[in-house]
Structures are given as C-alpha cells and as structure tokens.
Design brief:
With 266 residues, this protein is of the alpha/beta class. It has nine helices and twelve strands. It is globular.
C-alpha cells in the first residue's frame, strides 16, 4: 500500500474558524472583522492498493471564490491533475473517488476524473437540504457541475472504536467510518498500512491534530455535541490502534504520513 498526500493549493482562514468562541459568537465571528491565520494546505489523498488507485476527496480548483472567512490560493497547475502528476500519477489512473463530505475544497476536483465518485447517503441528503443549499448561493460556492455521486451507506460491522464501517477494498484494509460533526454525514477513511498502522484520512473531522487533542468543536458544526462525541471516538480508536491522523488542512499531516507518526492519545 502506498498513500500520497496531494496538495491542491492553500487556504487562509480566520482565527475564529480555527479557535471559535463558545455560544452565539461561534459562528457570528466568522462574518465579523478579525485576524487571519497562516495559510493551510488543501490536501486530498491517493491510495495505491490491490492494483487500483483510490482517491479520498479531490481538492480545490483555481475557480474557488473567497468567502467571508476563507481566502483560497490555487493555481491551475495545483489542481488535481498537477497534484497527481507530482506523485507520478494521472487522473486516468483513478479507479474511484470517495468524498468525506460535500464542501467545495473536497469535491471541486472531481471535474478532472472519469470514474465513479461516491458520497455517504446522509451527507448527500444534508448537502441537498435547504440551509447548505442557500449558503452555497450566498457564498457563491456552487457544487461542481455535474454533481451526481453514487451513494453509499456505512452500516457494516464495527471497526475499532467505530460502531459501523464500510470496506473499500477486498482485503478490508481500507474502510470508511462515520465521523459526523463538521457536517452531519462526514466520513473518514482508514487504511491499514503495510506496518499495521491505521492511517486515518480524516477530511475535516478536525482542521488540525491540535483540535482533536483539545476536543474542540469547530466553528461550522451544526451540533457541537455531536462533533465532540466524534472527536472522543477518534481518540478512543487512537488508543486502541496506532493511528496516523491526517486532517486535510493540517500543515503537519504530510510530514506525519511520511514519518508514520502516530497519535499519542491522552
């Protein structure tokens, strides 16, 4: 198994996005004046296994519009084809794309592939509901056209600390697990590498490893209690299994992957 960190540009977010205040200010601060953090990577992940290439998320495009709390920097050569080429791969190599959730910096790159694209049923239902649909129009962040992913459900047997899982490879060394919080249907993908470590491709389950260890809900989670419960479950999994934790926007994720560095869960 080989796992590649693919970088599709960077994003700068407000400090209030990374370290939200509790209560009513949690989301309101995103739209009010405030300091900005340092640039963060926009990662997606390519997994070579069993003679096929699985893509977890697809990164951002150069057409991404800035919003009140996020400013994107993506050149054309940083989009998915260029990111794959830097790893010695091509969009034509991709057999399947699994989306952790529906936000643009995770799905916009699907326009570059011609293979099945899959998303969880709960996430697609949420993406098509009133509030996120309205917000996409307000923020001028449309889903790529066409956006017609195949649906999957995570209803299989337990996997580590997770109550259910969905195998994504014949040998069950790649599985999807539910990690709701950032969005109601958010999922993560766990790969068991050749050394037996669990490599968790975590999407936006958190922005950083620090957020996971702090058990801090993010600024956009619809239900902070659900988000914190998911973070507790992830840490429980890290205590049960040596886990390399890789959120898509953590500047340290690519380095942890290269080093095989696992989480020291409290």
């Amino acid at each position: 198994m080989r796992i590649h960190a693919l970088s599709t540009g960077t994003v700068v977010v407000k400090e209030a996005f990374l370290h939200p205040r509790p209560g009513l200010r949690r989301q309101a601060d995103l739209f009010l004046p405030g300091p900005w953090a340092a640039p963060l990577p926009i990662h997606c992940w390519a997994v070579e296994h069993e003679g096929r290439l699985l893509l977890v998320d697809s990164g951002e495009s150069a057409d991404a519009r800035d919003i009140a709390f996020a400013r994107f920097s993506v050149d054309r050569d940083e989009e998915l084809p260029g990111a794959l080429a830097a790893a010695g791969l091509s969009p034509d190599d991709v057999a399947e794309v699994v989306l952790t959730h529906h936000h643009g910096d995770h799905v916009d790159g699907i326009v570059h592939v011609r293979c099945p694209v899959r998303i969880g049923r709960e996430e697609l239902r949420y993406a098509q509901s009133a509030f996120p649909s309205v917000m996409r129009r307000v923020l001028r962040q449309p889903l790529p056209d066409p956006f017609a992913p195949e649906i999957f459900e995570i209803a299989g047997e337990p996997f580590g600390a997770f109550d259910h899982s969905l195998p994504l490879s014949v040998d069950r060394r790649i599985v999807a697990v539910p990690t709701p919080g950032h969005t109601p249907g958010h999922v993560s993908v766990i790969c068991i590498d050749d050394d037996g470590r669990h490599v968790m491709l975590a999407g936006d389950a958190t922005d950083t490893l620090e957020q996971l260890l702090a058990l801090r809900a993010d600024a956009v989670a619809p239900d902070t209690r659900v988000h914190v419960a998911t973070l507790e479950r992830i840490l429980a999994h890290c205590r049960e299994h040596p886990t390399v934790y890789l959120p898509s926007h953590d500047p340290g994720s690519a380095g942890r992957l290269a080093r095989g560095e696992t989480v020291s869960a409290p």
